[in-house]
Design a protein that fits this description.
The structure is a single chain. It is built from two helices and eleven strands; from the N terminus they run H-E-E-E-E-E-E-E-E-E-E-E-H. With about 210 residues, it is mainly β. The longest helix has 10 residues, at about 195-200.
């Protein structure tokens, strides 16, 4: 994902710090910094917000919207983010173990140095997204509409891409011993030489020295 002003979160140069309760106004939180809190679930629209050391408690954040939002050192493990919308969002050094993104829409979003083991993205629309130096062991991308996705120097072992077209997806710098995928939907993905050998075996090709 090429970085430019259109793809990076657009935050004001200075954000005033508020508590979540202070910032919440009729289901809307905007133009603020929220630090070191535990947040209860709810359907909320976040716009131009910086979260630092915030824990999203296990619960339903279903259909919430995050636009121009940055998460730093946050914990969203097991949170229900299904059918949520993420647009120009960055997650940096965050825990998203088992987070449920089912049927979500994720655009121009960057996951950097995050833990996403067992995260679920099934049936989501994901475009122009980068996972960088992150762990996605057994993450689930079942039947995802995936466009311009980059997996950069990440651990994807046993991730599931069954039913997902991998055209335009870059795996070449990442690591895995196995992936679950649909061989008919492999065309157009970018892989390293070692990965190509693994995919060739899945296609039933017999490789000899």
């Amino acid at each position: 994902m090429k970085k430019n002003k259109k793809t990076e979160p657009m935050l004001p140069p200075e954000l005033e710090t508020f508590s979540f309760i202070e910032a919440l106004d009729d289901g809307y939180v905007h133009d603020c910094r929220i630090v070191s809190e535990e947040l209860e679930a709810g359907k909320i629209h976040f716009d131009r917000v910086l979260f630092e050391n915030v824990r999203f408690l296990d619960g339903e954040w279903e259909r919430s919207e995050f636009a121009d939002v940055v998460f730093i050192n946050c914990d969203l493990s097991n949170a229900d983010m299904s059918r949520a919308v993420f647009h120009r969002v960055k997650f940096e050094n965050c825990r998203l173990l088992g987070t449920d993104f089912t049927e979500s829409t994720i655009r121009y979003t960057h996951f950097k140095e995050c833990r996403l083991d067992y995260a679920v993205f099934g049936f989501s629309h994901i475009s122009d997204v980068a996972f960088e130096k992150s762990v996605l062991r057994q993450a689930d991308f079942y039947e995802v509409n995936l466009k311009n996705a980059q997996f950069l120097d990440s651990d994807l072992n046993e991730a599931n891409f069954t039913g997902t077209s991998l055209k335009g997806t870059d795996f070449s710098s990442s690591r895995f011993e196995d992936l679950q995928l649909t061989t008919e939907l492999l065309a157009g993905c970018k892989v390293s030489t070692d990965q190509a050998l693994l995919f060739a075996r899945k296609l039933g090709i017999i490789i000899t020295e």
